[in-house]
């Protein structure tokens, strides 16, 4: 392959044209990662055709449809959940039900919160608001719908084990090239009015 063609294939638009400021259209659709800030390239946003995409950017898939009540704002909800850092090797940071082995060996309580009080991350609140009791929903959480200021102490749900906290904290606090997209499975156990 001639050297000029190879250079053309390897050269990004910003480098070849001498542009230094990326256009907003060039950055749109990419995951925000501090190590790539100001560049017009990066890891593209994941989008799956078998998931429903909401206006906010949340993607979800109902693994098991529920048949019970749908929570209303102000309802107290009880959920079981698990979480994964899908942008970083799919590491689990919380396990559903009674976990087996390793760092998730202890029994865990169901998670409770009041719908609409903003005590959980926006993605969690949005996902649970349209579920029915008995349903299990898988959600893909972009960084802007996740933990505020990349700190899991500021909004729930929090991992219940030290190793889960450590895995999540490593991804959230890393200022480099780690994608902070998360995946949660949520089971709506009950709605209490």
Characterize this entry briefly:
By secondary structure, the protein is α+β, with helices and mostly antiparallel strands. The chain has two domains: 3-36, no CATH class; 52-192, Roll (Chitinase A, domain 3).
Structure description:
- This protein is of the alpha+beta class and 193 residues long.
- The protein has two domains: 34 residues, no CATH class; 141 residues, Chitinase A, domain 3.
- It has five helices and seven strands; from the N terminus they run H-H-H-E-E-E-E-E-H-E-H-E.
- Strands 1, 2, 3, 4, 5, 6 and 7 form a seven-stranded antiparallel sheet that branches.
- The longest helix is centred in the last third of the chain and has 12 residues.
- The termini are far apart.
Observed structural traits:
single chain; 193 residues; alpha+beta; Chitinase A, domain 3; 2 domains; seven-stranded antiparallel beta sheet; 5 helices; globular; peptidyl-prolyl cis-trans isomerase activity
Architecture blueprint of SSEs:
Layout: H1 3-10, H2 13-17, H3 24-27, E1 52-53, E2 59-64, E3 76-85, E4 91-94, E5 111-114, H4 122-129, E6 136-141, H5 162-173, E7 182-192
Antiparallel strand pairs: 1-2, 2-6, 3-4, 3-5, 3-7, 6-7
Pfam family, one: FKBP_C
Protein name: peptidylprolyl isomerase
InterPro entries: FKBP19-like, PPIase_dom_sf, PPIase_FKBP_dom
């Amino acid at each position: 392959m001639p050297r000029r063609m190879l250079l053309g294939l390897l050269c990004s638009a910003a480098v070849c044209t001498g542009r230094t400021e990326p256009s907003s259209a060039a950055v749109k659709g990419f995951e925000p990662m501090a190590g790539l800030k100001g560049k017009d390239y990066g890891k593209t946003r994941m989008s799956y055709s078998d998931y429903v995409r909401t206006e906010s950017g949340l993607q979800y898939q109902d693994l098991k449809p529920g048949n019970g009540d749908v929570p209303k704002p102000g309802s107290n909800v009880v959920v079981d959940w698990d979480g994964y850092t899908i942008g970083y090797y799919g590491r689990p940071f919380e396990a559903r039900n009674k976990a087996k082995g390793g760092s998730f060996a202890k029994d865990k309580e169901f998670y409770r919160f009041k719908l609409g009080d903003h005590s959980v991350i926006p993605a969690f609140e949005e996902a649970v608001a349209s579920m029915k009791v008995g349903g299990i929903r898988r959600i893909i959480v972009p960084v802007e719908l996740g933990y505020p200021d990349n700190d899991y102490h500021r909004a729930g749900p929090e991992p219940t084990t030290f190793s889960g906290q450590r895995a999540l904290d490593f991804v959230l606090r890393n200022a480099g090239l780690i994608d902070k997209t998360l995946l949660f499975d949520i089971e709506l156990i009950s709605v209490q009015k």
